[in-house]
Amino acid sequence: MVTGGAGFLGSHLCERLLAGGDEVVCVDDFSTGRAENIAHLLDLPGFRFQLQDVTQGLDVPGPVDAVYHLASPASPADYLRLPLETLLVGSYGTRNALELARRSGAGFLLTSTSEVYGSPQVHPQPESYWGNVNPIGPRSVYDEAKRFGEAITMAYRRTHGVRTTIVRLFNTYGPRLRADDGRAVPAFITQALEGRDLTVTGDGGQTRSLCYVDDLVEGLVLAMGSGHSGPINLGNPTEVTMGELALAIRDLCGSSSRLTFVARPQDDPQQRRPDIRAAREELGWAPRTSLEDGLRRTIAWFRDTADAGLPAHRGEAATALA
Ligand code: NAD
Predict the structure, then answer these.
(1) b/e burial code for range 285-306 (CB count within 10 A of at least 16 → b)
(2) Mutation test of ligand 1: which of 9, 36, 298 has the most ligand atoms closer than 8 Å to its C-beta?
(3) What are the domain boundaries of the chain?
(4) Domain 2-172+211-234: CATH architecture, name and number where available
(5) CA distance 271 to 122
(6) How far is the CA of 140 from the centre of ligand 1 (A)?
(7) pLDDT for 277-307, tens place per residue?
(8) Among 100, 117, 118, residue whose Cα is nearest residue 109
(9) What are phi and psi of 207, to 5 degrees?
(10) Which of 44, 131, 188, 265 can bridge 320 by disulfide, Cβ–Cβ 3.0-4.6 Å?
Protein backbone atom coordinates (compact mmCIF):
# COMPACT_ATOMS: atom_id res chain seq x y z
CA MET A 1 0.00 0.00 0.00
CA VAL A 2 1.35 3.39 -0.98
CA THR A 3 -0.64 6.39 0.26
CA GLY A 4 0.03 9.45 -1.86
CA GLY A 5 1.08 7.08 -4.64
CA ALA A 6 0.02 9.44 -7.44
CA GLY A 7 2.41 12.12 -6.24
CA PHE A 8 5.98 12.80 -7.25
CA LEU A 9 7.76 10.39 -4.88
CA GLY A 10 4.83 7.99 -4.55
CA SER A 11 4.61 7.28 -8.26
CA HIS A 12 8.33 6.47 -8.43
CA LEU A 13 7.96 4.26 -5.37
CA CYS A 14 5.01 2.38 -6.95
CA GLU A 15 7.16 1.77 -10.04
CA ARG A 16 10.08 0.56 -7.96
CA LEU A 17 7.90 -1.85 -5.93
CA LEU A 18 6.24 -3.25 -9.06
CA ALA A 19 9.65 -3.73 -10.67
CA GLY A 20 10.69 -5.72 -7.58
CA GLY A 21 7.71 -8.07 -7.98
CA ASP A 22 5.40 -6.58 -5.34
CA GLU A 23 1.69 -6.00 -5.80
CA VAL A 24 0.85 -2.38 -5.13
CA VAL A 25 -2.32 -0.64 -4.00
CA CYS A 26 -1.95 3.07 -4.61
CA VAL A 27 -4.28 5.36 -2.66
CA ASP A 28 -4.55 9.03 -3.53
CA ASP A 29 -7.10 11.84 -3.65
CA PHE A 30 -5.23 13.82 -6.36
CA SER A 31 -5.13 16.89 -4.13
CA THR A 32 -1.51 17.56 -5.13
CA GLY A 33 -0.76 14.46 -7.21
CA ARG A 34 -1.72 13.78 -10.80
CA ALA A 35 -3.38 10.97 -12.71
CA GLU A 36 -0.66 11.26 -15.40
CA ASN A 37 1.93 10.12 -12.85
CA ILE A 38 0.39 6.66 -12.64
CA ALA A 39 -1.40 6.39 -16.01
CA HIS A 40 1.32 4.05 -17.31
CA LEU A 41 0.83 1.70 -14.33
CA LEU A 42 -2.94 1.27 -14.46
CA ASP A 43 -2.95 -1.72 -16.81
CA LEU A 44 -0.20 -3.62 -15.00
CA PRO A 45 -1.54 -6.75 -13.29
CA GLY A 46 0.11 -6.04 -9.92
CA PHE A 47 -1.20 -2.48 -9.66
CA ARG A 48 -4.46 -1.19 -8.25
CA PHE A 49 -5.53 2.41 -7.73
CA GLN A 50 -8.00 3.58 -5.08
CA LEU A 51 -9.28 7.14 -5.22
CA GLN A 52 -9.57 7.98 -1.54
CA ASP A 53 -8.93 10.73 0.98
CA VAL A 54 -6.96 8.97 3.71
CA THR A 55 -8.30 11.31 6.40
CA GLN A 56 -11.69 9.64 5.86
CA GLY A 57 -10.48 6.13 6.65
CA LEU A 58 -8.35 3.57 4.89
CA ASP A 59 -9.28 0.06 3.98
CA VAL A 60 -8.24 -2.37 1.30
CA PRO A 61 -9.59 -5.80 0.53
CA GLY A 62 -7.04 -8.57 1.04
CA PRO A 63 -3.82 -8.81 2.99
CA VAL A 64 -1.36 -5.94 3.32
CA ASP A 65 2.32 -6.50 4.15
CA ALA A 66 3.61 -2.96 4.08
CA VAL A 67 2.11 0.52 4.34
CA TYR A 68 4.22 3.33 2.89
CA HIS A 69 2.54 6.51 4.13
CA LEU A 70 3.43 9.37 1.80
CA ALA A 71 0.09 11.18 1.52
CA SER A 72 0.56 14.85 2.38
CA PRO A 73 1.02 18.09 0.50
CA ALA A 74 4.78 18.52 0.43
CA SER A 75 5.78 21.71 -1.34
CA PRO A 76 5.42 25.09 0.39
CA ALA A 77 3.05 26.35 -2.28
CA ASP A 78 0.80 23.34 -1.72
CA TYR A 79 0.74 23.27 2.06
CA LEU A 80 0.30 27.03 2.33
CA ARG A 81 -2.70 26.69 -0.03
CA LEU A 82 -4.01 23.64 1.89
CA PRO A 83 -3.15 24.38 5.54
CA LEU A 84 -6.02 22.55 7.23
CA GLU A 85 -5.85 19.59 4.84
CA THR A 86 -2.13 19.31 5.59
CA LEU A 87 -2.75 19.19 9.34
CA LEU A 88 -5.55 16.66 8.89
CA VAL A 89 -3.62 14.30 6.63
CA GLY A 90 -0.65 14.46 9.01
CA SER A 91 -2.87 13.59 11.96
CA TYR A 92 -6.04 11.66 10.97
CA GLY A 93 -4.42 10.39 7.77
CA THR A 94 -1.40 9.05 9.63
CA ARG A 95 -3.63 7.52 12.32
CA ASN A 96 -5.71 5.76 9.64
CA ALA A 97 -2.61 4.45 7.88
CA LEU A 98 -1.22 3.20 11.20
CA GLU A 99 -4.55 1.52 12.01
CA LEU A 100 -4.44 -0.31 8.69
CA ALA A 101 -0.91 -1.50 9.48
CA ARG A 102 -1.98 -2.61 12.96
CA ARG A 103 -5.04 -4.53 11.69
CA SER A 104 -3.03 -6.16 8.90
CA GLY A 105 0.13 -6.92 10.87
CA ALA A 106 1.96 -4.87 8.23
CA GLY A 107 5.13 -2.84 8.42
CA PHE A 108 4.59 0.92 8.39
CA LEU A 109 6.86 3.64 7.02
CA LEU A 110 6.27 7.35 7.64
CA THR A 111 7.85 9.81 5.23
CA SER A 112 8.68 12.60 7.62
CA THR A 113 10.79 15.53 6.58
CA SER A 114 13.85 17.64 7.25
CA GLU A 115 11.29 20.36 8.06
CA VAL A 116 11.00 18.84 11.54
CA TYR A 117 14.39 20.49 12.13
CA GLY A 118 12.84 23.88 11.26
CA SER A 119 15.50 26.53 10.78
CA PRO A 120 18.29 24.39 12.24
CA GLN A 121 20.84 25.67 14.69
CA VAL A 122 22.89 22.50 14.33
CA HIS A 123 24.59 21.81 11.03
CA PRO A 124 24.54 19.28 9.43
CA GLN A 125 21.41 17.86 11.05
CA PRO A 126 21.71 14.50 12.85
CA GLU A 127 18.56 12.61 13.85
CA SER A 128 19.28 13.40 17.50
CA TYR A 129 18.70 17.13 16.88
CA TRP A 130 15.22 18.17 18.10
CA GLY A 131 14.88 21.10 15.77
CA ASN A 132 14.00 24.77 15.81
CA VAL A 133 10.43 25.06 14.53
CA ASN A 134 8.17 28.09 14.77
CA PRO A 135 4.97 26.39 15.96
CA ILE A 136 2.63 29.19 14.86
CA GLY A 137 4.21 30.45 11.63
CA PRO A 138 2.63 29.69 8.24
CA ARG A 139 4.95 26.71 7.64
CA SER A 140 3.97 25.16 10.96
CA VAL A 141 0.98 23.42 9.35
CA TYR A 142 3.45 21.14 7.62
CA ASP A 143 6.27 21.00 10.17
CA GLU A 144 3.99 20.34 13.13
CA ALA A 145 1.82 17.87 11.21
CA LYS A 146 4.95 15.85 10.48
CA ARG A 147 6.15 16.15 14.07
CA PHE A 148 2.75 14.89 15.22
CA GLY A 149 3.02 12.12 12.62
CA GLU A 150 6.33 11.04 14.13
CA ALA A 151 4.85 11.11 17.66
CA ILE A 152 1.79 9.01 16.79
CA THR A 153 3.96 6.58 14.84
CA MET A 154 6.16 6.02 17.88
CA ALA A 155 3.06 5.73 20.09
CA TYR A 156 1.65 2.98 17.83
CA ARG A 157 4.97 1.20 17.99
CA ARG A 158 5.10 1.39 21.78
CA THR A 159 1.41 0.76 22.41
CA HIS A 160 0.46 -1.74 19.72
CA GLY A 161 3.83 -3.17 18.67
CA VAL A 162 3.41 -2.05 15.04
CA ARG A 163 6.67 -2.43 13.07
CA THR A 164 7.13 1.24 12.28
CA THR A 165 9.94 3.14 10.57
CA ILE A 166 10.31 6.91 10.37
CA VAL A 167 12.44 8.41 7.63
CA ARG A 168 13.17 12.13 7.41
CA LEU A 169 13.46 13.08 3.78
CA PHE A 170 15.54 16.02 2.64
CA ASN A 171 14.84 17.85 -0.62
CA THR A 172 14.38 15.44 -3.47
CA TYR A 173 14.01 16.20 -7.16
CA GLY A 174 13.50 14.41 -10.45
CA PRO A 175 10.99 13.77 -13.21
CA ARG A 176 7.29 14.40 -12.37
CA LEU A 177 7.84 17.40 -10.13
CA ARG A 178 5.13 19.90 -11.00
CA ALA A 179 6.46 23.13 -12.45
CA ASP A 180 4.01 25.13 -10.37
CA ASP A 181 4.56 23.45 -7.00
CA GLY A 182 6.91 26.14 -5.73
CA ARG A 183 10.05 24.02 -5.45
CA ALA A 184 13.26 25.48 -6.81
CA VAL A 185 14.33 22.75 -9.24
CA PRO A 186 11.15 22.64 -11.37
CA ALA A 187 10.77 26.41 -11.16
CA PHE A 188 14.31 27.09 -12.39
CA ILE A 189 14.06 24.45 -15.12
CA THR A 190 10.82 25.77 -16.59
CA GLN A 191 12.04 29.34 -16.36
CA ALA A 192 15.33 28.45 -18.08
CA LEU A 193 13.67 26.38 -20.81
CA GLU A 194 11.24 29.21 -21.53
CA GLY A 195 14.00 31.85 -21.53
CA ARG A 196 12.49 33.70 -18.57
CA ASP A 197 14.39 35.15 -15.62
CA LEU A 198 15.26 32.64 -12.90
CA THR A 199 13.70 33.95 -9.68
CA VAL A 200 16.06 33.26 -6.78
CA THR A 201 14.81 34.08 -3.29
CA GLY A 202 16.87 36.26 -0.96
CA ASP A 203 20.47 36.70 -2.05
CA GLY A 204 20.65 33.08 -3.21
CA GLY A 205 23.15 32.21 -0.48
CA GLN A 206 20.82 29.85 1.40
CA THR A 207 21.64 26.19 0.91
CA ARG A 208 19.81 22.94 0.29
CA SER A 209 20.99 19.39 -0.27
CA LEU A 210 19.29 17.77 -3.21
CA CYS A 211 18.74 14.05 -3.63
CA TYR A 212 17.80 12.44 -6.93
CA VAL A 213 14.48 10.58 -6.75
CA ASP A 214 15.78 7.10 -7.70
CA ASP A 215 18.31 7.19 -4.87
CA LEU A 216 15.69 8.33 -2.40
CA VAL A 217 13.18 5.64 -3.38
CA GLU A 218 15.84 2.97 -2.89
CA GLY A 219 16.31 4.33 0.63
CA LEU A 220 12.57 4.03 1.33
CA VAL A 221 12.53 0.38 0.31
CA LEU A 222 15.64 -0.40 2.37
CA ALA A 223 14.22 1.41 5.38
CA MET A 224 10.94 -0.53 5.22
CA GLY A 225 12.85 -3.80 4.94
CA SER A 226 15.15 -2.95 7.84
CA GLY A 227 12.47 -2.82 10.54
CA HIS A 228 14.56 -0.02 12.10
CA SER A 229 12.35 2.38 14.07
CA GLY A 230 14.23 5.43 12.89
CA PRO A 231 14.12 8.30 12.57
CA ILE A 232 16.66 7.99 9.78
CA ASN A 233 17.67 10.90 7.56
CA LEU A 234 17.52 10.20 3.83
CA GLY A 235 19.04 12.82 1.59
CA ASN A 236 22.10 13.85 -0.31
CA PRO A 237 24.68 15.57 1.91
CA THR A 238 26.14 17.58 -0.99
CA GLU A 239 25.11 21.13 -0.20
CA VAL A 240 24.50 23.77 -2.85
CA THR A 241 23.43 27.41 -2.62
CA MET A 242 20.28 28.43 -4.45
CA GLY A 243 22.35 30.82 -6.56
CA GLU A 244 24.69 27.99 -7.61
CA LEU A 245 21.71 25.76 -8.35
CA ALA A 246 20.09 28.39 -10.55
CA LEU A 247 23.31 28.89 -12.52
CA ALA A 248 23.86 25.12 -12.92
CA ILE A 249 20.33 24.61 -14.22
CA ARG A 250 20.56 27.58 -16.55
CA ASP A 251 23.81 26.24 -18.03
CA LEU A 252 22.56 22.64 -18.35
CA CYS A 253 19.45 23.96 -20.13
CA GLY A 254 21.68 25.93 -22.51
CA SER A 255 19.69 29.04 -21.61
CA SER A 256 20.75 32.67 -21.45
CA SER A 257 18.15 33.59 -18.80
CA ARG A 258 19.16 36.10 -16.16
CA LEU A 259 18.89 35.62 -12.39
CA THR A 260 16.57 37.97 -10.50
CA PHE A 261 16.29 38.11 -6.74
CA VAL A 262 12.94 38.16 -4.92
CA ALA A 263 11.89 38.20 -1.25
CA ARG A 264 12.39 35.06 0.80
CA PRO A 265 9.37 33.44 2.40
CA GLN A 266 8.86 33.62 6.16
CA ASP A 267 10.83 31.06 8.22
CA ASP A 268 12.71 29.85 5.15
CA PRO A 269 15.66 27.85 6.53
CA GLN A 270 19.14 29.25 5.77
CA GLN A 271 20.89 25.88 5.62
CA ARG A 272 19.97 22.26 5.14
CA ARG A 273 22.24 19.25 5.02
CA PRO A 274 21.52 15.77 6.29
CA ASP A 275 23.89 13.82 8.45
CA ILE A 276 23.41 10.39 6.83
CA ARG A 277 25.64 8.27 9.04
CA ALA A 278 22.63 6.34 10.34
CA ALA A 279 21.40 5.57 6.81
CA ARG A 280 24.89 4.36 5.84
CA GLU A 281 25.33 2.22 8.93
CA GLU A 282 21.79 0.88 9.44
CA LEU A 283 20.62 0.58 5.83
CA GLY A 284 23.86 0.48 3.85
CA TRP A 285 22.38 3.38 1.89
CA ALA A 286 23.96 6.44 0.35
CA PRO A 287 22.92 8.49 -2.68
CA ARG A 288 24.74 7.62 -5.90
CA THR A 289 23.55 10.15 -8.46
CA SER A 290 25.56 13.35 -8.87
CA LEU A 291 23.69 16.64 -8.97
CA GLU A 292 24.72 17.14 -12.58
CA ASP A 293 23.44 13.71 -13.71
CA GLY A 294 20.21 14.09 -11.79
CA LEU A 295 19.60 17.56 -13.18
CA ARG A 296 20.31 16.36 -16.73
CA ARG A 297 17.71 13.58 -16.38
CA THR A 298 15.18 15.94 -14.84
CA ILE A 299 15.70 18.59 -17.50
CA ALA A 300 15.33 15.94 -20.23
CA TRP A 301 11.97 14.92 -18.75
CA PHE A 302 10.73 18.52 -18.57
CA ARG A 303 11.78 19.05 -22.20
CA ASP A 304 10.07 15.85 -23.35
CA THR A 305 6.79 16.54 -21.56
CA ALA A 306 6.77 20.15 -22.74
CA ASP A 307 7.44 18.97 -26.32
CA ALA A 308 4.61 16.44 -25.98
CA GLY A 309 2.29 19.27 -24.85
CA LEU A 310 1.50 17.61 -21.51
CA PRO A 311 -0.23 19.78 -18.87
CA ALA A 312 0.97 21.46 -15.71
CA HIS A 313 4.50 22.20 -16.73
CA ARG A 314 4.06 25.93 -16.73
CA GLY A 315 3.57 28.32 -13.90
CA GLU A 316 4.93 31.43 -12.27
CA ALA A 317 6.63 29.39 -9.59
CA ALA A 318 8.12 31.12 -6.60
CA THR A 319 11.41 29.53 -5.67
CA ALA A 320 10.79 28.71 -2.04
CA LEU A 321 12.41 25.36 -1.76
CA ALA A 322 10.56 22.90 0.49
P1 NAD B 1 3.38 15.22 -3.73
O2 NAD B 1 2.51 16.38 -3.37
O3 NAD B 1 3.83 15.09 -5.12
O4 NAD B 1 2.69 13.86 -3.31
C5 NAD B 1 1.82 13.73 -2.21
C6 NAD B 1 0.63 12.90 -2.64
O7 NAD B 1 -0.27 12.75 -1.53
C8 NAD B 1 -0.18 13.55 -3.77
O9 NAD B 1 -0.38 12.63 -4.81
C10 NAD B 1 -1.50 13.94 -3.10
O11 NAD B 1 -2.58 13.95 -4.00
C12 NAD B 1 -1.60 12.88 -2.01
N13 NAD B 1 -2.44 13.29 -0.90
C14 NAD B 1 -2.38 14.42 -0.17
N15 NAD B 1 -3.35 14.43 0.77
C16 NAD B 1 -4.03 13.26 0.63
C17 NAD B 1 -5.14 12.69 1.30
N18 NAD B 1 -5.75 13.32 2.32
N19 NAD B 1 -5.59 11.48 0.89
C20 NAD B 1 -4.99 10.82 -0.14
N21 NAD B 1 -3.94 11.32 -0.80
C22 NAD B 1 -3.46 12.53 -0.42
O23 NAD B 1 4.62 15.28 -2.73
P24 NAD B 1 5.96 14.41 -2.72
O25 NAD B 1 7.08 15.32 -2.96
O26 NAD B 1 5.80 13.21 -3.55
O27 NAD B 1 6.02 13.99 -1.18
C28 NAD B 1 5.60 12.71 -0.73
C29 NAD B 1 5.84 12.59 0.76
O30 NAD B 1 7.23 12.75 1.04
C31 NAD B 1 5.10 13.64 1.59
O32 NAD B 1 4.62 13.03 2.76
C33 NAD B 1 6.18 14.64 1.91
O34 NAD B 1 5.92 15.30 3.12
C35 NAD B 1 7.41 13.77 1.99
N36 NAD B 1 8.62 14.55 1.70
C37 NAD B 1 8.94 14.87 0.42
C38 NAD B 1 10.09 15.61 0.18
C39 NAD B 1 10.51 15.99 -1.22
O40 NAD B 1 11.53 16.64 -1.40
N41 NAD B 1 9.79 15.60 -2.27
C42 NAD B 1 10.90 16.03 1.24
C43 NAD B 1 10.51 15.70 2.53
C44 NAD B 1 9.38 14.95 2.76
Answers:
(1) bebebebeebbebbbebbeebb
(2) 9
(3) 2-172+211-234
(4) 3-Layer(aba) Sandwich (3.40)
(5) 10
(6) 16
(7) 999 999 999 999 999 999 999 999 999 887 7
(8) 100
(9) -110, 155
(10) 265
